[in-house]
Amino acid sequence: MTNPTEHALPANSTVESREGDFGCTVMDLRKLMELRSTDGVDQINVHYGGVMNLCSRLKTNPVEGLSGNPADLEKRKQVFGQNLIPPKKPKTFLELVWEALQDVTLIILEIAAIISLVLSFYRPPGEENKQCGLPVSSPEDEGEAEAGWIEGAAILFSVIIVVLVTAFNDWSKEKQFRGLQNRIEKEQKFAVIRNGHIIQLPVAEIVVGDIAQIKYGDLLPADGILIQGNDLKIDESSLTGESDHVKKSLERDPMLLSGTHVMEGSGRMVVTAVGINSQTGIIFTLLGANEGEEEEKKKKGKKQGVPENRNKAKTQDGVALEIQPLNSQEGIDNEEKEKKAAKLPKKEKSVLQGKLTRLAVQIGKAGLIMSAITVLILILYFVIDNFVIHRRPWLSECTPIYIQYFVKFFIIGITVLVVAVPEGLPLAVTISLAYSVKKMMKDNNLVRHLDACETMGNATAICSDKTGTLTMNRMTVVQAYIGDTHYHQLPSPDVLVPKVLDLIVNGISINSAYTSKILPPEKEGGLPRQVGNKTECALLGFVTDLKQDYHAVRNEVPEEKLYKVYTFNSVRKSMSTVIEKPSGGYRMYSKGASEIILRKCNRILDKRGEVVPFKNKDRDEMVRTVIEPMASQGLRTLCIAYRDFNDGEPPWDNESEILTELTCIAVVGIEDPVRPEVPEAIAKCKRAGITVRMVTGDNINTARAIATKCGIVTPGDDFLCLEGKEFNRLIRNEKGEVEQEKLDKIWPKLRVLARSSPTDKHTLVKGIIDSTVGEQRQVVAVTGDGTNDGPALKKADVGFAMGIAGTDVAKEASDIILTDDNFTSIVKAVMWGRNVYDSISKFLQFQLTVNVVAVIVAFTGACITQDSPLKAVQMLWVNLIMDTFASLALATEPPTESLLKRRPYGRNKPLISRTMMKNILGHAVYQLTVIFFLVFAGEKFFDIDSGRKAPLHSPPSQHYTIIFNTFVLMQLFNEINSRKIHGERNVFAGIFRNLIFCSVVLGTFISQIIIVEFGGKPFSCTKLTLSQWFWCLFIGIGELLWGQIISTIPTQSLKFLKEAGHGTTKEEITKDAEGLDEIDHAEMELRRGQILWFRGLNRIQTQIDVINTFQTGASFKGVLKRQTMGQHLDVKHVPSSSYVTVAPVTSPPTTSVPAAVSSPTLGNQSGESVP
């Protein structure tokens, strides 16, 4: 392994002399962090004389932290580097221009234009024209003939425009992603102790020597060594691939690595390596070095495709890097996840992409066939007319003239192709998504993966957390049961026995994370601010309400004095802290879910504060009279208890022995009020055909009460509210495996899942997504905030993480971050998602009308009059309007509430509905009728010269100018019609809310006037009179009236209309296509149209065999390499266990890929796994 430090630390050479100021160098610390467990402990003790000594060498105080002196921090950054991993260099504008030039259609046009240019300068002597059998040109045509070069030049010019527009779009897209990435990274903060105060510091500001506070759910931002830890367990699978959680302690393994997740416990560490010197950074740098070589190879190979924007958005927050082996314990899911990350954006995630891909391929094929036929007919007609009918000999001096004709025919054919292929489609999708993402930011949705935004529009189910999403996450204790008395209002401190009061205050103050605290309100008269865990803040608030001071207790018992801490986790559902008693022995305080703690209590404090036995019947009585009434009012109940150990030290590691025989001090009821705007938002979801389910860890009664308040369940409904245990009993067979048939009986009616574990949540989400009951397959969105929600968020079609309460792990697994943790923001996301879908349908309706008309006109015109009524340059202009400008205008329509009044489209609804098909064909009929009338009878109607059968370099005619002008104006008014796709009559509704649309339509109209009046030869136009202009406008406005006629025809009566752009049908997705195979299924889906989708016709050129992910235009080398890899591996499905075996088939043994790297910064363009 080469050491990447040379280029990692630019300041290295000058730094050497100053590193003496600290007791160790960058390299010493890097070497230290490469050691694991006991080796690390030995090295710290032998070489540095213990952790405390290491801290003093790094000039930091293990309790107070760094002083925060700017000069000191700057010096540390110089010596040890910054906590940043430099991002990959973005593509320059010129590189993007070069990429856009690689488009096949454009290349063909360029070649044709150049040939046309060259030939136009060749002037044969006049008399030979007769021999060549071509019309003799009059003297005034000579000047025109001189200008024959203009057409070629104009084509080249329009090609340049198209290329620049494409490159600019790619460039701005890339820029947006970088902005989004920076925003995600800036938002990641970490708790660091500076000058004795805990502050939240942006990750990039952390320096070597900082003392960082770590807790459950954190993603470690730098390497460090543990100074003090409570029950700390870390998931290091992202670096080592070991899926078991690693226990960290000072004695056994104090090494903490960046990019790993804290799964349990809390503690403090001293930062020893940051940025490119951390373990993650080293891997990044190595990959960066490899990538340089890869790039070189690729440059020699075929061109590289579109930048992999989708993946760029997936850069880990800050620095996390996911490298996971294939045999991890989460089995299929993890493997699926990693495979997806390496190969595809996500499983058959984006419903829209699949449909568009299929549609684009179909249109492309049709266009190719049409253009080929056009060229053939033109050439055959010319040859037969000249050499067969008129029996002229082929004269060598005429050859250049004949070639000029052939080039002209070729240009016409290519033009048909250019118009037929909807290259504006990817542009429309990009613009629409980018626009939505920008606007969603204002609606508190931070979109991390672009396609999540559009998938959200298809969502049919939302599985939401309760705390913080549906409720305000501002908890307060409102009831208490202390000493045989149920207080419905909080008791005053004098009512309580001093001994009991003392136990309550200590039990709460000591047994809660010291990071949870209550600060004075920001504004006068506001509520006190709760910092840290909200449940603990509620308890601390209870202490304050009892006129006691929890700070005093914490100062007396600082964190260092805590003997042992069993931190809260989803299995325990409780937290316990052990302290040494001054008189000897130990006391343990516990708190947790009341039914769990009460089961472990065998004594309770009575009215006088005396300990009395607490039997099973007492417990049942208490549940009936205290806990259930509290829960039915929507309160969360917590129990506070303690236990004394007086005879020697018990076996602390044996939890079941420690957490028993507790003495109950009190039970409190905590209220977390429902957010006022939630019931309305849930009602909107119901109207929009989306089912909301609540999945919570709370007691079933509490959950039911809150669900009723929110409107998720209404009294008298036939819906299920289950507890996790009951849910599992109903869906699993004797062997304990989940059975889809059993699950299918439960989920349609399930509305509340209480006391659920993260696994239950994952099972439910997976079950709903995999289910094939019901008329359409479900698209599921999930919200989550805890570390344990990761798997469910990953599995869901769209994962929402909470921006405020969410842990880093949850954010990492999510697609969208809710910056205000509010359920109403999810409804906004649905609205935006549906809007994206509709915008693209609007664009398609407009684009396909133009395509159909332009292709038929060019084709029939060419066949009948040997010349397309619309010239190459004119077609390119039409192409520019309908592609670039129309996609801008139609893709930026703002969403309206009416979007929430229809049911979701679901996975298999076609993109082009019957109504849209009716509009497309209806408008095409109108436009074709008008244009053919103008082509064949226009000269009589307007009383002008006919433009048909004009000689080669003849001047532009008014006749064909009128045709071009009318055609463009019809498109312009049809663009207004295209604003509505569900058959609405009022196409102007809300048109002024979209300024972009208005300016595009106006801008196009003004440009059209300029082109017709001043375009001259390059645009094959000539000036028109005012009356001719009015006729053109009148015919254009006729589009709007015709639109009204079309919308009166009921779609139902047109049975013959087919829909187009279907999603995947049910039959295609069989049960076993889920799990791992579904990746291949998605790949087959995307294989068909990938590159056409991005750039016109490359797809057809390479014949639809090239596999590639839809949004990453990768190098073909990589593609083929992966194709062969795919042929070597046969995927066997093992239904019973959650593992997947990958067996080599009839091929030399393929080495298994140890880790799939899912991080865009690795820049592995072709998406192959990195061995």
From TrEMBL:
Species of the source: Canis lupus familiaris (Dog)
Keyword terms of this UniProt record: ATP-binding, Calcium, Calcium transport, Calmodulin-binding, Cell membrane, Cell projection, Cilium, Flagellum, Ion transport, Magnesium, Membrane, Metal-binding, Nucleotide-binding, Phosphoprotein, Translocase, Transmembrane, Transmembrane helix, Transport
Region (Disordered): 294-318, 1145-1171
Compositional bias (Low complexity): 1145-1161
UniProt feature, compositional bias: Polar residues: 1162-1171
Entries under PANTHER family matching the protein: CATION TRANSPORTING ATPASE (PTHR24093), PLASMA MEMBRANE CALCIUM-TRANSPORTING ATPASE 4 (PTHR24093:SF435)
Assembly and oligomerization: Interacts with PDZD11. Interacts with SLC35G1 and STIM1. Interacts with calmodulin.
GO process annotations (BP): negative regulation of calcineurin-NFAT signaling cascade
SMART domains found in the cross-reference section: Cation_ATPase_N (SM00831)
GO CC annotation: plasma membrane; sperm flagellum
Function: Catalyzes the hydrolysis of ATP coupled with the transport of calcium.
CDD domains: P-type_ATPase_Ca_PMCA-like
Entry's localization field: Cell projection, Cilium, Flagellum membrane; Membrane
Stretches assigned to the Cation-transporting P-type ATPase N-terminal domain: 45-121
Name this polypeptide is given: Calcium-transporting ATPase
Domain of life per record: Eukaryota
Enzyme Commission number(s) from the entry: 7.2.2.10
